[in-house]
């Protein structure tokens, strides 16, 4: 949807536990932080809108807070999309150019990518991302940018990220009912990669994991391009729920315990110290040891790591990630989780360290904000080219650094 204010960029990360709305501004083509607001999420679960009015109210609260802080009026936003409904799909298409070789133009590239994108999809699925993996010129594979090269036939092999049509429509509808237009929907780990991955990591093979409250998104790169996207229905809330059930306390108190004392490796346990756990409705508090807390959390942490490994193994990528894994999202900050992933998967693992935008507070260097920072860089490139026709393909070329 066209923007009404090209000077201001809104980025909405609508999560299960919290919603953050970030505002950036363009000053002489420089991207500058203007403000942000974080509110508790209502009506969102595992990346899905489950109660429309509550979700709309959440977005409005964030919008009112950030507009007051930044002193600007927002018209539209780029929105995160996550959840176990995300699926990846490979595709390909080819076109004959002429009977004899000729120079390939940008229009030729647009045409073959358009054909590759127009695959038959179930009615309940929608494509939100198309990324070329390689072009094949007269049976010569491995071409990344065919512009200006000679061929009589060109094929494109692409990877597409698809989502539930219903889930996306209701997400967009909630944003619109809150008074904002939607510029674009961005898969969470794709935004993370914009601010957290180097070209060398993408080339060597790397997977980005965004561990949110309700689910864990996965995006893997090989030879510089997207080769896999998916999601696992386990996130930080599952750790919280295990603590609440195991220690007979409220989810709110369980979340506090997880954040203050939680760990995913006994190496991070605090000796024999005890934890006071408030009971329900004035019932007596209980004293529990760090050992007991670990016994509650570790099985879920091991389950998450095993599911990640199995997902990457099914995709044929577990042994092909030379640069290993990059962890992001609020759930990734559980002490010991990085070590557990390294030990169980046999891969190097690091935390996302997004490169901050000008004037941005230091708190955005945390892995839980990696999506918003990366989405800001992505949105900047989209808006810089917004005056050009064929906006979808301009965005696609931008993602590939093939803008003409």
Strand order of the largest sheet: 3-2-1-6-13
Quick one: how many beta strands?
20
- Largest sheet at a glance? 5 strands, mixed
User: What is the 3D shape?
Assistant: globular
Instruction: Indicate the CATH architecture of one domain.
Output: 2-Layer Sandwich
Determine the N-to-C terminus distance.
22 Å
Under CATH, the topology of one domain can be stated as: Nucleotidyltransferase, domain 5
Q: Helical segment tally?
A: 11
State the low-pLDDT regions, or none.
1-6, 387-404
- SSE-based structural type: alpha+beta
Rg over CA atoms, rounded to whole Å, is 22 Å
CATH homology superfamily of one domain:
ATPase, nucleotide binding domain
CATH class of one domain: Alpha Beta
Mean pLDDT: 90
Portion in helices: 25-40%
Strand content range: 25-35%
Task: Give structural notes.
By secondary structure, the chain is of the alpha+beta class. Among the domains are: 8-84 and 165-193 and 354-399, 2-Layer Sandwich (Nucleotidyltransferase, domain 5), CATH 3.30.420.40; 87-163, Dna Ligase, domain 1. It contains eleven helices and 20 strands. The chain has helices at residues 52-70, 106-117, 165-177, 188-196, 199-204, 236-247, 251-261, 290-314, 337-345, 370-384, 391-399; strands at residues 8-14, 18-27, 30-40, 44-45, 48-49, 76-81, 87-96, 102-103, 125-137, 140-143, 150-151, 153-164, 181-187, 206-211, 216-222, 225-232, 274-277, 286-289, 325-328, 349-351. A five-stranded mixed β-sheet has the order 3-2-1-6-13, with helices on both faces. Strands 16-15-14-19-20 form a five-stranded mixed β-sheet, sandwiched between helices. α1 packs across α3, α4 (188-196) crosses α10 (370-384) and α6 packs antiparallel against α8. The radius of gyration is 22 Å and the shape is globular. It starts with 7 loop residues before the first strand and ends in a 5-residue tail after the last helix. Mean pLDDT is 90; it is low at 1-6 and 387-404.
